[in-house]
Amino acid sequence: MVRFLINTLIFLGSSALGIWVTSLILEDFTVNFVGLLIAAVIFTVAQGLLSPFIFKMTTKYANAFIGGVGLLSTFVALLITTLLVDDLAIDGVTAWVLGTILVWLVTAIATWVLPLIFLRNLAEDKKG
Question: Reduced to 3 DSSP states, what percent helix, strand and coil does the chain have, rounded to the nearest 5?
Fold first, then answer.
């Protein structure tokens, strides 16, 4: 149970970081603080539900696209999030394409780095 909560917090943090960093880089990808919090929760839930489904459908019907599952699930999760959160706006094709790539990239890196930081801090706390 503790591991599930830690993983959930890591995914939530990486989602928030991905959306926030993308909003700093792209002019047509905007979010305010409250919208970021709500968007991160919705995006995390959508991504968690969509990724396995899209992976299963891809392996069943379009095996050549397996490498794009992360990008596709990120795009769909962003689409759902923008429909549900008024404080997140993505305007234009360029913002959608680059936004999807940036959110996917930052989220992937953060999901990889955050556990390393968390585990290092946890190990240091046990030593000290």
Answer: 85, 5, 10
Report helix, strand or coil for 126: helix
Residue 50 has pLDDT above 80, yes or no: yes
Which among 12, 7, 32, 23 has a CA at the least distance from the CA of 107? Answer: 12
Can you tell me which residue has the tokens 């795009």? 75
* pTM attached to this predicted model: 0.86
- Residue 75: both structure tokens together: 């795009």
d(CA 49, CA 42): 11
Contact indicator for 114, 13 with CB cutoff of 8 Å: yes
Q: Which two tokens stand for residue 77?
A: 């999760």
Q: H/E element holding 89? A: strand 88-90
CA 124 to CA 128: how far, in whole Å? Answer: 6
